[in-house]
Design a protein that fits this description.
heterodimer, A: mainly beta, 7-stranded mixed β-sheet, 4-stranded antiparallel β-sheet, B: mainly beta, 6-stranded mixed β-sheet, 5-stranded antiparallel β-sheet, about 60% strand, globular
Chain lengths: ~110, ~110
């Protein structure tokens, strides 16, 4: 099992550009999550999906959109990137509460 | 709102025991989780306490007191590889996690 995979690993964007971060899990988990982590800080929830076909806002949803494409995949889209969105983005999945994280995407917006 | 407090940094020597405390204020509390994160890596799950008391997993133990809104992670027989950041996280309804700011543990020889 690969667990939770994320692509890309690194990305540099210019202000105003758009991009989609991809996440997939092969553990048959129902719930999936997107977090951002800024230097020296904890993780903040952007969006989550409790099950296929549902998505809800987390603590910091502004500037992001998500799609739960199927049970395996949960993507995060930045429509118009801003320097404040420079961060490390982690995707996670869970079945009964314990969350398992992907390796992260390091995004820089210049 | 929800808030979690944990020390920003702890230093200990190899072979010693260290305790990382976490206090929280939250509504709809289901339990307290602990995650480890090495520099440049992803958070990895360590433990979860839903009930009061001590849970032991090898060299790591985690404690919860719901009445005191307090928990701790205890690391025994410290090894250099334990140098990492440790996050407590409150689990709410819907299996949502709210994370603390993290405690950076430095293990010295």
């Amino acid at each position: 099992n690969a667990g939770v995979t994320q692509t890309p690993k690194f990305q540099v964007l210019k202000t105003g550009q758009s991009m989609t971060l991809q996440c997939a899990q092969d553990m048959n988990h129902n719930s999936m999550y997107w977090y951002r982590q800024d230097p020296g800080m904890g993780l903040r929830l952007i969006y989550y999906s409790a099950s296929e076909g549902t998505t809800d806002k987390g603590e910091v949803p502004n500037g992001y959109n998500v799609s739960r494409l199927n049970k395996r995949e949960f993507s995060l889209r930045l429509e118009s990137a801003a320097p404040s969105q420079t961060s490390v983005y982690f995707c996670a999945s869970s079945l009964q509460g314990d969350q398992y994280f992907g390796p992260g995407t390091r995004l820089t917006v210049t | 709102g929800q808030s979690l407090e944990q020390p920003s940094e702890v230093t200990a020597v190899e072979g010693a025991i260290v305790q990382i405390n976490c206090t929280y204020q939250t509504s709809g509390f289901y339990g307290l989780s602990w995650y480890q994160q090495h520099d440049g890596g992803a958070p990895t799950f360590l433990s979860y306490n839903a009930l009061d008391g001590l849970e032991e997993t090898g060299r790591f133990s985690s404690f919860l007191s719901r009445s005191d809104s307090y928990g701790y992670l205890l690391l025994q027989e410290l090894q250099m590889k334990d140098s990492a950041s440790y996050f407590c996280a409150v689990r709410n309804a819907g299996n949502m996690l709210t994370f603390g700011g993290g405690t950076r543990l430095m293990v010295k020889p």
